[in-house]
Amino acid sequence: MSIHKNPTIQFTVIFGTIDLKSPYLWPGEHPAKPLLDDMNITHRGRSDTVKRALSEFGSDESFHDARQKFKEHYHVDVGISTADRTTKAIAREASEYIARKLSSGGTDTENACGSVQEHVQAILLELDGCEMRTAQMHVINHSDERTPIYHNPKKEKRIAWRDVRLGFARPLAQKEKVFGGKMDSYPEVVKQLHGAAEFIGMTSDTNVIGVADGGIGLSEELFRQFPMMQFILDKSHVRDHLYDTAEKMGISKDARATWVEPRLQDISRGHVDKILTEFVREHETTPCARLQRLIGYVTRFEDAVSYERFKEYGYPIGSGEIESAHKSIPQKRLKSPGATWHPESINPMLALRIVKANDWWDDFWEQRTAQRVAA
């Protein structure tokens, strides 16, 4: 074989952009481009070190700021679109990495803390959601207008708020967590949470405690995938429901606490039947649709609101941990001021944030490199 063509290509490494000769070897049974075939070096490509740095900055900052930070650290200038495309490409790989990691059924030899897995007696689960602003372009159905150059149908941007769900599993006696989450249905999110629980050592003998709000279908899905779970309804949500009901019943603002707090105390002590009887009596005296809803809400969760008993067991009675994690994991990057995302970018970017939150960043890149070498 001999060099048939030998064009010059540009490739960006951590020290800057370099020019390389990329020979095309021909003739022969298998013509070859060694730089592309053996080293994955392409024209206007970037090294893995560059991709790692860009995606690390891009997972924490806007793509504009990621570009600036990359230039500040490495004195190499790249475009905002380069930071965008590189980060999102690595984010898609991070999403696949998490799917593999949390579907292993706990067969990984090390847990999130880096220690060999052992049977965990009790595991805490928390799950909560927050809304992210998304935008998509849609063809204007009622318009015959076309774009001036290519004459394509005109489109309009449609804004929507989508629910992103984040959860974690951790041994009850420890603080280290394994996070999971995505913009998806409860079955898919809880399935990932189940993988996180198995990853940290859950077995059929593990005591599982789940804390969440009363979202429709959430507790039901948790029970479906964790049949022996003790579900705890977040206490602050119960208080909010009580105050909202008091307002709808016409109780003055100054008197609401007097109506709410004794009832919340009775609920916390396990006197749910007594409170339900009071609610029914009040509803019969002064019918109120909101009070009727509250009766259904408390009835639905009557086994999940004995807060004083749960505290004696050492269980949390609120979902503050996961609510705090929402601020530091998805919201810090995906809900920055003015941010709007295409729905297809949400889960990969969230996966990138979760990889870092789980302290899997080095492992992710080591596995990525191993896979590329093996290929």
Q: Which short descriptors sum up this protein?
A:
375 residues, alpha/beta, 3 domains, five-stranded mixed sheet, three-stranded mixed sheet, 14 helices, 10 strands
What value does the Rg take, in angstroms? 27 Å
User: For this entry, what is the oligomeric state of its chains?
Assistant: single chain
Q: Name the overall outline.
A: elongated
Secondary-structure-based class equals alpha/beta
The biggest beta sheet, please? 5 strands, mixed
**Total strand segments:** 10
pLDDT < 50 stretches: 109-116
Describe this structure as you would to a colleague:
- The chain has 14 helices and ten strands.
- The strands form three sheets. Strands 8-7-6-9-10 form a five-stranded mixed β-sheet, sandwiched between helices.
- The model is unreliable at 109-116 (pLDDT under 50).
- It is of the alpha/beta class.
- It is elongated.
Please write out the topology.
Blueprint: E1 2-5, E2 8-13, E3 16-21, E4 24-26, H1 34-39, E5 45-46, H2 48-60, H3 63-74, H4 80-101, E6 122-139, E7 155-171, E8 178-182, H5 186-199, E9 207-212, H6 218-225, E10 230-233, H7 235-248, H8 253-268, H9 272-285, H10 289-300, H11 307-312, H12 320-334, H13 343-357, H14 361-374
Parallel strand pairs: 2-5, 6-9, 9-10
Antiparallel strand pairs: 1-4, 2-3, 6-7, 7-8
Helix pairs in contact: 2-3, 2-4, 3-4, 4-13, 5-6, 7-8, 7-10, 9-10, 12-13
